[in-house]
Design goal:
Length: 314
């Protein structure tokens, strides 16, 4: 693509966007984004984007609806300013857990968000560790689905962990955990849990796999309240594991999550910077944040020049 590359960001995660811009060697373009006194959002693009290949970096993290609406308005403004292509870099895709009708009379909000982004004018989506990979099929535009596994694997290998085993908290994340276990050249175990309602409450029934005497690495895509991970960590103590680590791509960390982690048997929780850490989490010695900025920058540059992203999956 011969058009000029432009990077924009909203207010959701500016530190990540600035880091991506440094790696990409492209400054963030100028944009005004604020709310009127009546709580309505307003966007003005201050740079010329006519014919540009635009990338908007905006995770839909807390406040979810504000950040999602800001993203939709930015897309519309860029479309009306004659951008050639609008690529939405959404490191954290909100509502991803509402990906199916698992109860009577409930929405599939992940599909609704996909429709909103497409109708607004997005030409491509770049995201990281969707809760369910089939969400890619909710879009009728290209979706580049990136993974945090290489980032976590490099860090965990550098720790030289003794006798590790990767544990998925449930069967739904088994493929994700298997991919990390393969990179770490270690075994895999799965937690058998049941969700009891809509209040994030789960009951752990069993650990499937050999974990006795090993160093456990709990691996999941999202840590919200932390309840599931803490319960599994408690169960793992009965299996006489040496140490317990946890790695989760998206550190939502709602409610009492940080306190739950601090009081738990988990030695360290590793998260990425798809979401800005709440102050309590940033100050917690148990929580370590790893950056995916370089990966996103490489993806942006590759997409801009129409090259394969396969290097990011090696």
């Amino acid at each position: 693509m011969n058009s000029k590359l432009k990077l924009f960001t909203g207010k959701a995660n500016r530190p990540l966007a600035e880091e991506v811009a440094r790696f990409a060697g492209v400054p963030l373009a100028d944009i005004d984004l604020f709310k009127f006194a009546n709580d309505e959002s307003f966007v003005k693009i201050n740079d010329n984007v006519r014919g540009a290949d635009v990338f908007v970096i905006q995770p839909t993290c807390r406040p979810v609806n504000d950040n999602l609406m800001d993203l939709l308005i930015m897309i519309d403004a860029l479309k009306r300013a004659s951008a050639q292509r609008i690529n939405c870099v959404i490191p954290y895709y909100a509502y991803a857990r509402s990906d199916k009708k698992d109860q009577p009379r409930v929405p599939i909000t992940a599909k609704l968000v996909a429709d909103l982004l497409t109708v607004a004018g997005a030409d491509r989506i770049i995201t990281v560790d969707l809760h369910a990979e089939q969400i890619q099929g909710f879009f009728n535009i290209p979706v580049d689905h990136l993974y945090s596994i290489p980032t976590f694997a490099r860090y965990l290998l550098s720790m030289e962990i003794e006798d590790p085993v990767v544990i998925s908290p449930d069967s739904g994340g088994a493929n994700r955990a298997r991919a990390l276990a393969k990179r770490l050249n270690c075994g895999l175990a799965i937690g058998d849990k049941r969700r009891t309602g809509n209040d994030d409450q789960t009951v752990l029934l069993n650990i499937i796999g050999d974990v006795c005497g090993k160093t456990a690495i709990l691996f999941d895509d999202i840590i919200d309240t932390g309840g599931s991970l803490v319960k599994i960590a408690d169960v793992l103590k009965d299996y006489e594991v040496k140490k317990i680590y946890a790695a989760c791509t998206h550190g939502v960390l709602s409610g009492a999550a940080v306190k739950n982690i601090e009081k738990s048997a988990i030695e360290k929780l590793f998260v990425t910077n798809t979401i800005p850490l709440p102050e309590a989490a940033a100050n917690c010695p148990k929580i370590v944040q790893l950056s995916i900025a370089e990966m996103l920058a490489i993806a942006i540059k590759k997409i801009h020049i129409e090259e394969s992203l396969s290097i990011l999956f090696k």
